[in-house]
Write a structure and sequence with these properties.
alpha+beta; about 25% strand
Amino acid sequence: MKFNVIVEQDEDNIWIVECPSIPGCISQGETKEEALNSIKDAIIACLEVRT
């Protein structure tokens, strides 16, 4: 499955990633790559909990 995500950098230079199609599915990382890898795990976890 593919999900669109929103990637932003906050004022402390932490990367925040949100998956809008799964409410509450948010992750972060010190680098953009780390945050994107983290959201993949978060999406899997969110889907497991909701099924």
